[in-house]
Design goal:
Elements: H1 5-17, H2 20-44, H3 51-55, E1 57-60, E2 67-70, H4 79-84, H5 95-124
Antiparallel strand pairs: 1-2
Amino acid sequence: MARTSDQLKRLQKRMAAIPLAVREAIIPALDRSADQLVAAAKHLAPEDDGDLRDSIRKEPGEHELQRKIVAGDEATFYATFVEHGTAETPAQPFLFPSYRLNRKQIEARIKRAVNKAVKDEWGKR
């Protein structure tokens, strides 16, 4: 996300402004959403021997409120070539379609978690 030191400082400042209780309440919604994307991408991934499908996973992001969905590893380095295609083979997208199919539901889930956490935190004051 943050690529320059100025961007990183602004991101860290914004993250620090979010109360800890709110951040902790959002994490389950983020994990559930990431799991949903992984399942959808695995379902849409082309299957020859299943290695590409099995390499799709979630990883922690650059900060505690970020998750990355990753496809490919050393054995399945070709995940990008499958997603975008090459000069000789057509694209067989699986990651971006899974995101587009689930985006609204994921956004709604995270917004609900944020709103609930903020309301709960606000009620404590």
